[in-house]
Amino acid sequence: MAIRVYNTTHNQKEDFIPLVEGRVGMYCCGPTTYNYIHLGNARPLVVFDTIRRYLLWRGFEVTYVQNFTDIDDKIIKRGVQENLSAAQIAAKYIAAYFEDAQALRVLPADVHPKVTEHIEDIVVMIQEIIDNGHAYVVDGDVYFDVTSFPQYGKLSGRALEDMQAGARVEVGDVKRNPWDFALWKAAKPNEPAWESPWGMGRPGWHIECSAMSCKYLGKEFDIHGGGADLIFPHHENEIAQSQAANSGGFARYWLHNGFITVNDEKMSKSLGNFFLLRDILEKFSGDIVRFYLLSTHYRSPIDFSDDKLLMAQKSLERIRNSYYLLQESEKRAVEAPAALTETIAIAKAAFVEAMDDDFNTALAVAAVFDFCHELNAYLQDNVQPSTTDIKDAKQLFADFDSVLGMILPQEQSNSGLAEDLLQLILEIRTMARGKKDWATSDFIRDGLKNVGIVLEDTPQGVRWKKA
């Protein structure tokens, strides 16, 4: 069975056929780094981390890119409030992001690009858009001319004549049309700015993701993900400017997760009903939060409450109790004919079928519960279970865990995966040092030290050892 994904572009499920057989390029919009992430930010982190995990488990080679927007009006404003520079604010909350992501067992992306490190790429792309007749310059600002792009509105299903300027799209008298959006903003006093052909300034919000995704994944790639709130204007504008610069192409499959609600009302800062993830983590472990987020299909809304998290906690405990019972039974296992072969095959097939169907983690979790029920009955009926059954059942739990990321306690997770993750973290640190990003380098070093890994920088490269 082919993997099916719900493509927002066409509002239907489609067979997933990557551009290059066996390889997948994924881009997911990351946070604007002016505050700690909230639960609404955490959902796409967990959702697309799980999709990435599943594709890896299915044997695909995945390149996963997740950005940081580290220059923005909100970052500048927060810097004034905290008496810090925009760069210091961004560094502070990027470090906090990695702490929170680790608690959720979100694997680091292959690349975590920052806007401020890609100004040159952004300027080049803006110039291409201008040269292709899709943008215009006014007093040092550069605006995308929406009327020059007939396909505008295809992703969101909006007709151009019915549109109003969306969130974060500034409306000004200098623009030809109210829905035109900024690609480059002329410098303002006492704000960070960079050189460009149009004068000192900084990028608009939307162009950042276009430039960084194209840099690391190419002008056309497989999956672009994010929350449903980004469909318009952010993702709609990404498509327009990317295709305008590259004369076609861009992301082939657009995947969007649903909203989190509180008492059936959308969680949002404007309503004051959003919850910082680290506040939730003071009450519940990251594994429980992850289980809660994956117990509902990613496109469906999910309602938040402590009661929902308590239910998730009890459900996860039931699964882990089955695993602990399996471990205990291993002590009395004997060489005997396998009796669980068919049960394990059925459970694995149900799990794969669920995940193949637009990454339906809710049904995948149900398959895990069904297996636990069968396993408990088997272990209760067999004082001396088969060593083959025990081995195969443990492997199935490991498979479930490698995809969902929270089935087993962290100390039970695959040690080989931990080794691979450490090497990945060290590569990210090496990249940071090469760019003289000492804040990120030191954060990784200190973070690893806190979990018992000591780094030593030598002329031959970095070495590590357990404390």
Structure in words:
The chain has 467 residues and is of the alpha/beta class. It folds into three domains: 16-279, Rossmann fold; 315-412, Up-down Bundle (Four Helix Bundle (Hemerythrin (Met), subunit A)), CATH 1.20.120; 418-451. The protein has 14 helices and 15 strands. The protein has helices at 39-57, 73-82, 86-103, 119-131, 205-217, 231-246, 277-280, 286-294, 306-330, 341-356, 361-381, 387-404, 415-434, 438-450, and strands at 4-7, 12-15, 23-28, 61-66, 135-138, 141-144, 181-186, 201-203, 221-227, 251-257, 260-262, 265-266, 302-303, 453-458, 461-466. It has a four-stranded parallel sheet, with helices on both faces. A four-stranded antiparallel sheet has the order 5-6-7-8. Strand 3 (23-28), helix 1 (39-57) and strand 4 form a beta-alpha-beta unit. Helix 9 (306-330) runs parallel beside helix 11 and helix 9 packs antiparallel against helix 12. It is globular, with a radius of gyration of 24 Å. It starts with a strand and ends with a strand. The model is unreliable at 165-169 (pLDDT under 50).
Q: What is the CATH class name of the largest domain?
A: Alpha Beta
Residue windows where pLDDT falls under 50 for at least 5 positions = 165-169
CATH homologous superfamily label of the largest domain? HUPs
Strand order of the largest sheet: 4-3-9-10
Shape: globular
Instruction: Please give the alpha-carbon distance between the first and last residues.
Output: 47 Å
The CATH architecture term of the largest domain is 3-Layer(aba) Sandwich
Helices, by number, come to 14
Strand content: 5-15%
What is the total number of structural domains? 3
Tell me how many strands there are: 15
Helix content: 40-55%
* Element order: H for helix, E for strand: EEEHEHHHEEEEHEHEEEHHEHHHHHHEE
Structural class: alpha/beta
CATH topology of the largest domain: Rossmann fold
Mean pLDDT: 91
Q: For the report, how would you describe the main beta sheet?
A: 4 strands, parallel
Radius of gyration, in Å, reads 24 Å
